[in-house]
Every structure is written in structure tokens, then in C-alpha cells.
Amino acid sequence: MPNKNITLLALSQALTSSGASMLVFVGGITGSQIAPTPVLATLPVSLMIVGAALSTIPTALLLGRTGRRRGYMLGSGLGVLAALLAALAVHAGNFALFCTAALLIGAGMAFVLQYRFGAAESVAEEKSGQAVSTVLLGGIAAGYLGPEIARRTVGLFGLESFSAAFLILAGLYAIAMALQYTLDEIVPRQQTFDQPPRPLRQVVVQRTYLAAVMAGMVGYAVMSFIMTATPLHMHSMQGFSLADTAWVIQSHIIAMYLPSLVTGALIARLGLGRVMAVGVVCLLATVAIALVNPHLLGYWSALVLLGVGWNFLFVSGTVLLTHTYRPAERFKAQAINDFTVSSIQACASLAAGSVLFAANWRTLLLLNLPALLAMSVVIFWSWKQLQNPLDGHTL
To answer: How far is residue 82 CA from its own chain's centroid?
Structure first.
């Protein structure tokens, strides 16, 4: 898509999302080495998601005051600080400081979550699905960069464990900030802009709004619950090598974003409802494969399907969300959505380590089924509106 802002946001997505992919890969491993108890091993990964959840509403409101360009730069600057703290924490073996850094990386991710809305607002309405998908393609590079930098820089510069990786990550955030400085300020589409904002309650009770939020909630909850536990289960409990574990996580994160090459086109051709349904089927297949195949290929297949299922639910939910509010309502509507989704994701991630140690891998997988059943019910309940999102409400 020949659009300056879309290109810059996709590049920013690649650089800044590397922090999340790196922390997903090394967080549980590092936690198991420096945490006071093994039960807390996945806490840094969970705190990253908690940081995103706590920051979603303040971030959206801040962007409403500063504009997207300056706000995105502030988020990248926060990432620089967080990465430097993480490097220091790992080198010193300070678990509390590492958790603080993870929380700040999550706070920075709240700004990254807003890239997709900036993309949707940079193009005509009928191209919003493709714009969102294009920006999310940056996650392909992030899925490779984060774990690969961590894997290849262990002990670099004579530093402890993954310290050097986080120093390099700080540089990636700084590059992203420089790119964002060149963004054109993003102004929302002017249609209906002369209409006053409605009460927030009127926006969030729409069937289409609820379906959009539910798609994000289920996609992120299932993905986070399984993804957070996988590196710890594979490497620390099942004895798979660091290289094998990195390959699975890299493949998963790439699979989260690679479908974006076609997701926008699929939405245009099949409709939001069908794309959401395929996402649910992929997540059900994830659970099934992970239950029956404990070998490396089983983990790989399950985590790839986990990424694809997340992509279909997340992108279709984002596109649907943009049809539920007027331009004057966008920041508050987006904030409620991202806060709800991130909060559920944080709860899932926080529970992952405890469930894995207190119960087992099989139980962790089966606990995802109620959420997937609920998403199936919502798709059925909203089928007509999902196929024609503009018919379900009046802007």
C-alpha cells in the first residue's frame, strides 16, 4: 500500500514489537533463573501484559491530546528506558527490577496497539482492513528479531545471560522513535465528523461493538495463556533445547502476523463473520494438536495455528470496531476496547504459570475451551451484523 504513514507504522511495528517477542522468549527462562520461587517464573511476561492493560486508557487519552505522531514517539522513548532497565536487571540478577522493566515494556506496547487505529484512520474506510493488516505485517520481522537477537547474544560483551539482547533492543526502540518523527499527523476520516459524540454507554452496548471486543478478548486470552506457558514447559520442564524452543516461539509470532498478507482480502471477500469463525477453528485445532502430540513438530504446529487463529480474530475485531464509533468518539471507544482486551490477556498470562505448575499442560489446554465456545456463540448471535457491520447501528 503506497502510503507513507502505513509504511512507517509497519516499520515501527517491526521494531517495537521485538520487545514483546524477546520478553516472551526469555521472560520465563530468565525468571526461572532469578525468581525467588519457580512459581513466579512467568511473572515478568505476565507483568508485560499487565503493563499494557493498565496503560491502554491513559495512552488513548494521551494520544487524543498530543496527536498520534508525538504519542507514538513517547511510547518508543518509554521502550528505550524499559530495555535499558531490563539489561541492568538481568546483569545484576535482580528479579524485582526485571519485573519493573517488563511492566514498562508492556506500557510501551499500549502505544503499539494504537498503531492499527492510526493505520485505519490514514486510508479510506473501504481500505481499513488492508491498512490494519499491512501494519501488522511488521510483526513478522518482530517475531524473528526478538528471539533471534536474544539467542545469538547470550553472554555478548561479557554481560550476564540476555543483558546484551536488551541493550540492542533499546537501540531498536530508538530507531522506531526516529521513524515516527517523520510521520504525517493522522487526521481521522471526516465522514459524520460534524455529528456530536454520543454517550459512551450508547457506543459500547452496540451488538457490533460487543462482538468486536469479544473477538479481541478471546483471541488474546487463548493466545496469551498458551504462549506464556510454552517456553517454560518446553525448555525447563520437557528438556527441549533453547534453539528448538526459540524456533517454536519465532514460528508462532510470525504466524500471528504473516496471515495479514491475506486477512484484509479475506475479510473483503468472505465477510467478518466467516473470518472470525475460521479463527475459532484454528484455536480449537491448537488445543487438539497440543493435547495429542508432545513432540517438537506438535508444539510447532499448535503454536503456528495459535498465531493464525489470533490474527483472524484480532484483525477482524479491529476492523469491526472501526465501524462502531464516530470520529469524535474514537479515542474513548478504542480505550475501552484495548483496556478490556488487555485486562483479560493479563489475567490469562498471570494464570499460565500457576496452572502449569499447580496442575499440568493438559489442564491448561482444556481450560481454553469455554472461551472458544463463548466466541462461537457470539459469532452466531451477531452473524447478520458481522456480514454487514454498518447495518447494525447508526453513526
So the answer is: 18
